[in-house]
Amino acid sequence: MLPIFDLTLLLNGFPMKEAKAELQQIISFSEEEHQSFIEEQKTKIVAFHLENNPFYKEIVGSTTLKNWNDLPI
Fold it and tell me: Are 57 and 50 in contact (CB under 8 A)?
């Protein structure tokens, strides 16, 4: 039986098989690969918000931040 949360995701069209496959891939990363993956995801998150969120773009300004911890929350 599927847990209720999984069932809700399936009913809403969430690609469960693909997500579980990606999770297994992430879990299998070595420590070094995992750290690299995390840094890449951080970069993607910031790029997404700078492109799609005018308010956040205004807060960050035109400077290029190299340190995740320097970003405004």
Answer: yes
